[in-house]
């Protein structure tokens, strides 16, 4: 049995807690782990200037990551268009290298810097512009169309909270252990969001948002076509391929985050029962504590650095609401193991923090039940 790191709080035990299903004690390593969100710090003078402009100094890792991307990935992006003759090999190396280094980190940095502004308001229009650089200029480097993230994530996903027929990225209508269902889910997002997102805003009379997302999508297409005319090979590898890669990553991530869903008989929903929590995995230190997803839906304004402490404080709520909590796996692991039917593997990594006690067989049955499509009840007059 591994010795827990100093200062890591005890949060529960592996297993369902029932007969024969009480495993090792689980400590929250994430509370004391060394952060790994950015690759290198800017020069000291630059770092001090950046930190002085931040609305919250705890967001220095986000700002430093953006700096890393600007000084490494942007020059490589430009170089691909300048190299003659065009090279598919270099294009593939570009995608593989920078996605491995940055994609996971950037998606979550963009995520949290969209929920909470990065720079101080007092810097006026300059701050307002740079607070949008993440979704306007950096996001397209990773295949996320210009300006669409705000509408998709903040306005839609957190308001409608994965509810079927409301949230366009809802997982509820699909069987979450089915590769076929996930492919349908991914295709709908990859193709359909170009029409569905503007319509979502328009139908809710959010006309400015509708116009903004149409402008962003149009700008993304125009930029691709213009760059394709300059260098087709480079345009494909810098814009088209990243769009496919990021759509797979983001949709598999969201699928896994909302894989286990329990809806009340009256249609009521609870964030603890519709979101998965994953702990004690190295990805936590690269993704700004993204594993505390239920807590993020409970309070989307909570700072990412506060999640471990808040999780310990709200253990009772996780238990009372029968939340699904895993240790030693991250979201992609959850999705892949569901596709492979490895419920036993997930059950062995389930953490009981106060949920109803279950045997291993009962725990597996519960997990299988929660991945089934949610049936929408039709209202009778």
Automatic annotation (TrEMBL):
Q: Which Pfam families match?
A: FA_desaturase
What are the record keywords, sorted? Membrane, Transmembrane, Transmembrane helix
- Say if the entry is tagged with keyword Membrane: yes
Checking InterPro entries in the record gives: FA_desaturase_dom
- List residues traversing the bilayer: 62-83, 89-108, 129-151, 182-200, 207-228, 234-252
Q: Does the record's keyword annotation contain Transmembrane?
A: yes
Single Gene Ontology BP annotation: lipid metabolic process
In this chain the Fatty acid desaturase domain maps to 93-317
Entries under PANTHER family matching the protein: FATTY ACID DESATURASE DOMAIN-CONTAINING PROTEIN-RELATED, ORF
- Protein name, as recorded: Predicted protein
Origin organism is Micromonas pusilla (strain CCMP1545) (Picoplanktonic green alga)
